[in-house]
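User: Structure please.
Assistant: Input sequence and predicted structure:
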Amino acid sequence: MKPELLILLSIFLGFVVLEIVLTNFFKKPGQTYKDVIVELTSTVAVSTIAQPLAFGGGFAVAAFLVPQSADMLLTWPLLAVFGLFLFFDDMTQYWWHRTSHSVPWLYKLHRPHHNAPYLSIRVTYRNNFFYYLLMPGLWFSGALTFLGGGWVYIIYMLIKMPVIFGAHSDVRWDKPLYKIKWLSPIMWLVERTISTPATHSAHHGKHQSDGVTNYKGNYGNLLFFWDVLFGTAKITRQYPEEFGVENLPDTSVAEQLIWPLASAPKPQGQAAQVQT
């Protein structure tokens, strides 16, 4: 296994251990057998098949369209190439995520991520297979790697993924820091720059009326700054009491994992909808 993948796996497993010790990793509030099946299957399928296919697809498309540009980024400054990944991966992922909460067929792909009535490191890769396969940021990252950005992509992912793991875990690393008065100015900057457990928990909240939940916002992955910039940020330093989807019918394991190849029976007269 490549060293960078080993590091990321170790960080992921580190959050697993923390949840085992602190928040009951194996039995989250309200979980069902369907949640366990969806999370295990999607984590394996997404990380070993969907993401590599999308990344490799972007690499192959770039090699076909601009073969003469291979490795052109090797002479660029690190920060410039890092900025390309922030723009073409993280910002496009913000817009992909935001669009998925507005377009019904995309929400069908993304809904599994919100179906869990809890947050956990287990939820990080909980999405429909095709949600990741079609994710523009993965295709762009593959293309940028063909262009010579692979060495920076490793650094970028070693920064991005721990932030995402921490934002999804119910080990709320930010909560004690909010209580330290002299850290307040630093935390003010942090919570407007990267995703934190508080800001991302708000996105997973179940009830828009609770004063904390913001499932029509707080879309950022690495950078919460995109929400600040594009007007979708809600910062309360609080956490919703309930997580999940609001006002939507139940769904099957197969639909969560591989829709549109499989779907749950639709109640008579039930129209397609997104969480509103």
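Residues 33-65 form the longest helix (33 residues).
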